[in-house]
């Protein structure tokens, strides 16, 4: 049997999708180097008595971006609050609103949902006052609120914010940039996907892809949007369109990335391989998954969980092609790593072991079983006693 869909293929969080589409993942950005430069700039502000200047506020916003990229949301929040204070003291209300929205993102990431909602609402109020009710900045915060309300179990409120955002993004003659509308549609699509309204998500993403086509030169963004579209198409069983979308995304990503092997590229190749499987194009699936494995090994290491997920899919492709020994070698490697990390009685380990056992039986081989540790034996005994 073919086993599909192992591993993370797409994080539905708006901030994570935006990070991928902006720069194709954190790995494409030199966060350590950027952080050092920001710290140097902030020290210079202190030494030259320019603390509290607009320039310092800008550097703190950049430092917050670096911290966020490194998943240090507490540090990002601290820099954003200081930046907001400086901007407010200088009367830059519109800039304060933009920072407040980003503060909401940091609070959202930290699970401080009530505070995040207040920060978003504060940003909306100022944006409306300074830019007008129909500005793209207002719509952008509406999408943030929609995602927040989905997270807190309020889909009706989330849908209302999505509809409000779409009215703004769809307004003719409003002067929105193509980039704002493309990102906005993709973000709203992500919320509809969370609502399980995937056809609506596909319609919005298709519109975003069409719009992006009229703004050449942004291949990273185009690849991210088309990848998101392909994955949603795959989820609803539209495998031929998904294959087309994912293949286009891979080609654009390779063109824009100058040959860089990133996690995002590996993720897309993995998903493209699965689409090939669904279309019974097993040779193409195997070739694509082999490439995905090579990319993931270089981007995040041969034993990373996402790399192992690709290897698991590749083993299934080898099995379907009759390349049984290659499939066995992969599954033995995967199983050894997972047994070391998860223990021999973990359900995920049992699943891989069953797959390997079937293949070993086909070629008349057996596997030397790994002995259980004392901790695992005690866990097993506890599990058995709970059953009885």
UniProtKB/TrEMBL annotation:
SUPFAM superfamilies: TPR-like (SSF48452). It comes from the Eukaryota. This is MalT-like TPR region domain-containing protein. It comes from Marchantia polymorpha.
């Amino acid at each position: 049997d073919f086993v599909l869909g192992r591993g993370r293929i797409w994080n539905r969080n708006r901030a994570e999708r935006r990070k991928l589409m902006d720069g194709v993942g954190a790995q494409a950005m030199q966060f350590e180097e950027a952080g050092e430069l920001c710290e140097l700039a902030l020290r210079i502000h202190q030494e030259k008595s320019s603390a509290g200047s607009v320039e310092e506020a800008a550097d703190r916003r950049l430092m917050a971006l670096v911290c966020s990229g490194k998943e240090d949301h507490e540090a990002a929040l601290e820099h954003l609050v200081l930046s907001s204070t400086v901007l407010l003291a200088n009367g830059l209300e519109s800039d304060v609103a933009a920072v407040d929205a980003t503060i909401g993102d940091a609070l959202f990431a930290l699970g401080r949902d009530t505070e995040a909602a207040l920060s978003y609402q504060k940003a909306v109020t100022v944006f409306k006052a300074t830019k007008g009710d129909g500005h793209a900045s207002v719509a952008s915060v509406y999408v943030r609120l929609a995602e927040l309300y989905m997270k807190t179990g309020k889909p009706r409120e989330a849908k209302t914010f999505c509809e409000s955002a779409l009215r703004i993004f769809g307004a003719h003659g409003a002067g929105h940039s193509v980039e704002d509308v493309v990102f906005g549609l993709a973000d709203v699509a992500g919320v509809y996907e969370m609502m399980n309204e995937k056809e609506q998500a596909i319609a919005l993403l298709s519109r975003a892809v069409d719009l992006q086509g009229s703004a050449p030169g942004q291949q990273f963004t185009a690849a991210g949007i088309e990848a998101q579209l392909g994955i949603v198409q795959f989820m609803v069983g539209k495998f031929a369109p998904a294959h087309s979308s994912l293949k286009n995304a891979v080609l654009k990503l390779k063109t824009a990335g100058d040959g860089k092997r990133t996690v995002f590229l590996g993720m897309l190749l993995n998903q493209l391989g699965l689409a090939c499987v669904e279309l019974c194009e097993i040779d193409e699936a195997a070739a694509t998954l082999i490439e995905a494995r090579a990319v993931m090994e270089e981007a995040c290491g041969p034993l990373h969980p996402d790399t192992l997920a690709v290897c698991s899919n590749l083993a299934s492709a080898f099995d379907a092609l009759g390349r049984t020994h290659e499939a066995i070698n992969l599954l033995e490697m995967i199983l050894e790593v997972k047994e070391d990390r998860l223990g021999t009685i973990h359900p995920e380990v049992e699943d891989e072991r069953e797959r390997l056992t079937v293949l070993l039986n086909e070629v008349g081989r057996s596997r030397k079983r790994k002995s259980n540790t004392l901790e695992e034996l005690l866990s097993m005994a506890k599990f058995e006693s709970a059953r009885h």
